Amino acid sequence: MSRQKASFKTEKEFQEAILQEKVSGTPDLEIGQKYGVTFKYIERLITKSQGVNVSAFKISKKVKTLYPKDFKEEQTTVWSFKQRGNWATHSGEYRGNWSPYIPRNIILKYSKAGETVLDYFCGAGTTAVECKLLGRRCIALDINDKAIELARENIKFGIESQQLAFIDNKIHSQVYEPELSVGDARNLPSLPNNSIDLICAHPPYANIIHYTDSKEGDLSFCDIGEFLKEMTKVAKESFRVLKPGRRCAILIGDMRREKHVIPLGFELINVFLNAGFKLRELVIKRQHNCKTTGFWYANSIKYNFLLLAHEYLPIFEKPISPVLLDIKETEVDYSLIIPALEKPTIKRRLDGLETTTVWILPEKDFEKRLNKNVIDRYSNGKGYSTISFVSHSQSEANTTSRERQKGKGLLFIRAPFLTNNPSYSGIEFYLQEIKEIVNRELPVISEGGFIVIQTQDVRIDEYIELLAKRVVDLLTLDDLWLKEIVVVTQENQNPKLQATGEYLKINHQYLLVYEKVDSGRLQR
Ligand SMILES: C[S@@+](CC[C@H](N)C(=O)[O-])C[C@H]1O[C@@H](n2cnc3c(N)ncnc32)[C@H](O)[C@@H]1O
Question: Which residue, by CA, sits nearest to atom 26 of ligand 1?
Answer without folding.
Answer: 123
